[in-house]
Write a structure and sequence with these properties.
The complex is a heterodimer of chains A (469) and B (404).
Chain A: H1 2-8, H2 11-19, H3 59-64, E1 76-79, E2 82-85, H4 124-149, H5 163-172, E3 178-180, H6 186-192, H7 196-204, H8 237-250, E4 257-262, H9 269-281, E5 285-291, E6 294-295, E7 298-299, H10 310-315, E8 319-324, H11 328-345, E9 349-354, H12 373-381, H13 385-395, H14 401-424, H15 443-458
Parallel strand pairs in A: 3-4, 4-5, 5-9, 8-9
Antiparallel strand pairs in A: 1-2, 6-7
Chain B: H1 22-25, H2 35-38, H3 45-51, H4 54-57, H5 73-76, E1 82-85, H6 86-100, E2 104-108, H7 124-128, E3 133-135, H8 140-152, E4 156-160, H9 171-178, H10 181-184, E5 194-199, H11 214-217, E6 224-227, H12 231-243, E7 248-253, E8 260-263, E9 276-279, E10 284-288, H13 292-305, E11 310-314, E12 317-319, H14 323-333, E13 336-343, H15 348-360, E14 369-373, H16 382-388, H17 392-402
Parallel strand pairs in B: 2-3, 2-4, 4-5, 5-7, 6-7, 10-11, 10-13, 13-14
Antiparallel strand pairs in B: 1-8, 6-12, 9-11
The chains are: A alpha/beta (469), B alpha/beta (404).
């Protein structure tokens, strides 16, 4: 048994995983490559022949798989769950493989295309949009961060260093794919058309905010763009995404659910529940882990002892891949493949994107207290996802210095204007404090609103002037 | 012998129909109620005629209504209807809603092929398929989260907790996502889920399986809570909960699943925010819900014999409280006794006491009394378990005390 695990960690098996994109229409989906060393036989219990057939009762089919199977050398027996070969040797599966799972990348550190690399070709238009949006995201982050430091914003969390994950993954998806973000993925919204003004509105919580000013900054949400409102709790969006994928599966839509989380989020119970459920439900969901090395001040060495997050996929029967998160082209390619697999084969995919959190966890954090400024500097400059991708698009003749300075100048102006407008805007009406708790405000809430209004009337000087009544 | 008169309305199998025996009724009363209520003491038909409410007027010659579950006149007098057990009523409601709306789906442990641990989802997987009646692995937070995500994308999941106590594991999803996301998203996403399951103290199920989750959930903003107690309201509340746009938690009770009742053939739903008048009365308002309703009604029989006329209301809606019905009752009787299964501290009774004191203080002649379970984990030993739950004898004593 240990043998078959060793072989699957080798490079050839890894490439097989990558190549399992097309032409894999066999009903004994996906996991076959995991079982190649086991004797062939009837499919194991609990695995339906056809993922979509679960819309009817598959109990009969499952029951027929149970039972003893005569084997010539009596080295195999059916336990619940399938046929297992016996071994007379005591062999423990090692806690880790000798080699870590390799990381898929296409552009080297200098932005040069690696020879013989496999990637999904991207058009000039898309590539330029990917790059421009990364720049926009970077500028937006910097300006909002500074605004918070100046006291204009109450709170902010940057995505610096993870722009490629945000934008490139969004580029590989379609608008019908539903997104369940953690809180470091505003780039996906940006790609889909959320304007700088809309970002600013949410951060300032003014009356134009989709969320009606109820959530803290960076907790964006847009029904129109299929981006589910950020819930501050870690990893709770993972089971939500599985539910959405289940819904898409029931409707047989050509779309998948996509959810993001960090290395820290993979420790939460919801991560394990969600992955397990997604595998059992055969739900089309992409689990994208932004392994950026830090969960506030906790480094990954204190977060888990496995080889990152990618190896956890196998534990749940989920196909997984490790990607260089700072390589926009690799991210784009991997996501394209993953999305197609997820929908066509109705299965979950786990993607671990390795990256680095260049910024602080949020404006309430000072990361120099637990990591060296040199480390931050190095990742910010030498491993910058923007410069790598820029080199590549420039080498294709799709980008020039003037375009860069024009873009930066324009975005900066737009951002400052958006900030100004958002800051000046009126806040939502007091009644929004009580609406949307239920579909219709019940009597107790109406009563409570009256009480608040009465209090304000008797103490008008204590009430903020920019919140309309 | 209990002199119980009842006119219209069929009831559970426990109902008795006896003519008035005026000799027995004219027994001297032993209690002294203050002047305002004295007129109700004498158990004679004349008294009731002068002060009866509209409802009572129809029972003009009859003083004391049935001591057990009564439905309103409209429902069973039609004569048609079918008899079934409470869990079957729940299943019928669920099946009707699943037939009516293809977005309704069920998820939980062992709900599919096994038909649910209390058979509420029996037969549904055969009819609707494995995906629509989904058997999940064991992770309450995950499948509750799944239900919420599915609801946000347009489905109407009915999430079953095998025992309500297990939903403590789903507290994070219920509180932070289910209750909040409609609000924090600015109304962009609705979460029309129904979370249901059996709870309450059973017969020697052990402490962990005898929890009263309504205490813990009642504070969560954004959710509604209802508790069913009869086959009629079980089906009605199930259907209403599924149709509601808000997340609703439907509390069933482990010991009530085999209650039998005749329910109408025609389609009906119960209002989620309404309390049920079980037994109109004049002397005291007894507020209760779920299994305690039956202990109260049993105590009511005894009370009636002793000459009291309790008004029993099954509050049904645990969040929000039906203060309209409750208020009208308090204004009439001026005395309130709450009988609940929750623990003393922080239970539904505690909140209800506060709400009544705050809103109807002027109408009370005596402090609100609340009978609850003790603040102990439910013991396994049968005799001890019996005494953690409020017994009819205690209810009788409490009423006598309050009516002094």
């Amino acid at each position: 048994m240990a043998q078959h695990l060793k072989s699957s960690s080798s490079k050839s098996a890894f490439l097989n995983i990558l190549k399992h994109k097309l032409g894999f229409v066999s009903p004994s989906h996906g996991a076959r490559h995991l079982r190649q060393n086991l004797p062939h036989g009837p499919p194991s219990i609990g695995v339906s022949q056809n993922p979509i057939s679960r819309l009817c009762n598959t109990m009969a089919e499952k029951l027929s798989g149970i039972g003893f199977h005569e084997d010539v050398n009596n080295q195999v027996m059916d336990f619940p769950g399938g046929r297992i070969a016996f071994t007379p040797e005591i062999q423990f599966i090692s806690e880790s493989n000798k080699e870590r799972v390799p990381c898929y990348r296409v552009l080297d550190d200098n932005g040069q295309l690696i020879t013989n690399s496999q990637f999904v070709q991207v058009s000039e238009e898309v590539a330029v949009k990917i790059y421009s949006d990364m720049v926009t995201l970077q500028i937006m982050d910097n300006i909002f961060y500074e605004a918070q430091r100046q006291g204009r914003l109450s709170f902010y969390a940057t995505t610096i260093g993870e722009e490629a994950i945000n934008i490139a993954s969004a580029a590989a998806l379609t608008p019908e794919d539903v997104i369940f973000p953690q809180y470091r993925e505003p780039g996906v919204l940006l790609w889909r058309g959320f304007t700088l003004q809309e970002f600013a509105n949410q951060c300032f919580g003014n009356k134009s905010d989709n969320g009606k000013g109820r959530q803290m900054p960076v907790h964006y949400g847009s029904n129109k763009l299929n981006y589910f409102t950020v819930s501050a709790t870690i990893a709770t969006q993972l089971p939500n995404a599985v539910g959405a994928a289940y819904s898409l599966k029931m409707d047989r839509k050509d779309a998948c659910a996509v959810t993001f989380f960090g290395d820290g989020g993979s420790s939460e119970g919801d991560f394990h529940g969600a992955l397990n459920f997604a595998a059992v439900m055969e739900a089309p969901v992409l689990f994208i882990c932004r392994n950026n090395g830090w969960a506030i001040s906790t480094p990954t060495s204190d977060q888990f002892r496995s080889d990152g997050v990618v190896v956890k996929g196998r534990a749940y029967g989920i196909r997984s891949i490790r990607v260089d998160g700072n390589d926009a082209l690799a991210m784009y390619s991997a996501l394209c493949e993953a999305r197609e697999m997820a929908i066509r084969e109705q299965r979950p995919i786990l993607i671990e994107a390795l990256t680095y959190r260049v910024g602080h966890h949020s404006t309430s954090d000072d990361s120099t207290r637990y990591r060296s400024a040199d480390e931050i500097e190095w990742w910010s400059k030498a491993r910058n996802p923007l410069s790598r991708f820029r080199t590549w698009i420039e080498s294709n003749g799709w980008w020039r210095d003037e375009a860069e300075s024009d873009l930066r100048c324009r975005i900066k102006k737009e951002m400052l204007e958006a900030l100004r407008v958002a800051e000046k805007s009126e806040k939502p009406n007091l009644k929004e404090m009580f609406s949307d708790v239920y579909d219709v405000p019940p009597s107790n809430l109406r009563e409570q609103e009256l009480l608040v209004r009465q209090t304000i009337k008797s103490h008008p000087q204590d009430y903020p002037s920019d919140v309309p009544l | 012998m209990s002199a119980i008169i009842h006119g219209a309305g069929a009831a559970t199998a426990l109902s008795t129909f006896n003519p008035v025996d005026s000799k027995k009724l004219a027994a001297p009363c032993r209690t002294n109620l203050p002047a305002r209520s004295k007129r109700y003491i004498v158990a004679g038909s004349d008294a009731s005629k002068s002060f009866g409410s509209g409802l009572r007027a129809s029972h003009s010659q009859k003083l004391i209504a049935n001591a057990v579950a009564t439905k309103t006149d409209t429902s069973a007098t039609t004569g048609t209807g079918h008899e079934l057990l409470l869990f079957e009523a729940l299943q019928e409601g669920l099946e009707e809603e699943m037939d009516r709306d293809p977005h309704v789906c069920v998820m939980g442990e062992d709900v599919g092929h096994y038909g649910g641990s209390y058979k509420v989802t029996k037969g549904l997987a055969d009819k609707f398929g494995d995906l629509r009646v989904l058997d999940t692995p064991i992770c309450e937070n995950a499948f509750t989260g799944m239900g919420i995500g599915a609801a946000m994308t347009g489905l109407r999941p009915v999430i079953e907790g095998m025992n309500m106590g297990f939903l403590l594991l789903a507290f994070n999803q219920i509180s932070n996502n289910c209750g909040m996301l409609h609000y924090t998203s600015g109304g962009q996403f609705t979460i029309p889920v129904v979370i249901r399951g059996p709870g309450g103290v059973g017969r020697q199920l052990g402490a962990e399986h005898s929890q009263r989750l309504e205490s813990y959930f009642q504070s969560i903003p954004g959710i509604q809570m209802v508790a069913c107690s009869t086959p009629y309201n079980a089906k009605g509340l199930m259907k209403a909960a599924i149709r509601s746009e808000n997340p609703v938690i439907l509390f069933e009770h482990v010991l009530l699943y085999n209650l039998k009742e005749k329910i109408p053939d025609e389609e009906y739903i119960c209002n989620l925010e309404e309390a049920e008048m079980v037994r109109p009365g004049e002397h005291i308002t007894i507020l209760t819900y779920s299994r305690m309703r039956y202990h109260v009604m049993q105590a009511a029989k005894t009370l009636v014999n002793k000459g009291y006329d309790p008004e029993v209301i099954d509050i049904r809606s645990l969040k929000p409280f039906d203060l309209y019905t409750i208020g009208n009752s308090v204004k009439k009787t001026h005395r309130v006794l709450i009988v609940e299964e929750c623990m003393r501290t922080g239970g539904i009774g505690a909140s209800l006491t506060a709400a009544i004191n705050e809103n109807f203080h002027d109408y009370l002649d005596a402090p609100v009394m609340c009978l609850s379970s003790q603040d102990v984990p439910t013991p396994y030993a049968g005799t001890l378990e019996e005494w953690t739950v409020v017994q009819p004898a205690q209810i009788v004593t409490a009423v006598e005390q309050l009516c002094q």
